[in-house]
Amino acid sequence: MASFAPTADLLMQLLPRKGILAIAAVIDIALHARGRPVAAKALATRHRLPPRHLEPVLQALVRHGILKRIRGQRDGYELAREQRRITADDILRAAGTVDEIDPQPVNGSKLLDQVVIPALTQAEQAFSAALARINIEELARSAEGVRKSAAEG
Q: Given 45, 71, 117, 151, which residue has the most CB atoms within 10 angstroms?
């Protein structure tokens, strides 16, 4: 049986770009904070993004209690909770509020109401449950291992 390795292109179909960016930003802050806030500009530079793309995502993460904004001489962001208490699901839900899609419910036909919406709701709940099992502590540990192996190689 052939093994399956998901690509970024495949993930982009399931997860919004801002959600993936939000997860990367939280992991980055977990790795780089080291007792001092991480500047948005440093995050943007490391992820090769214009700061204007990152700032709304960071603000949403602050509003949802995932990050804390530190103002002053050491302006930046730090985690608002322990790494193990922040899940990928938490982050994606916060990032999903950045660009609210049309809040109008999709309805009107029996096919949509009785077949499509219930099936997609069930799939969404299963996906959300899987994302809730992934926490930042685990992802930061994996990222640290990748960083160390890149430095050695």
A: 117
Q: Report DSSP letters for the chain, one per residue.
A: -------HHHHHHHS-HHHHHHHHHHHHHHHH-TTSPBPHHHHHHHTT--HHHHHHHHHHHHHTTSEEEE-STT-EEEESS-GGG-BHHHHHHHHTTTT----S---SSHHIIIIIHHHHHHHHHHHHHHHHT-BHHHHHHHHHHHHHHHHH-
Q: Which two tokens stand for residue 10?
A: 């495949």
Q: What are the pLDDT digits (tens) for 47-61?
A: 888 888 899 999 999
The DSSP symbol for 78 reads E
Cα 19 to chain centroid distance, Å, stands at: 4
**In 3-state terms, what secondary structure has residue 13?**
helix
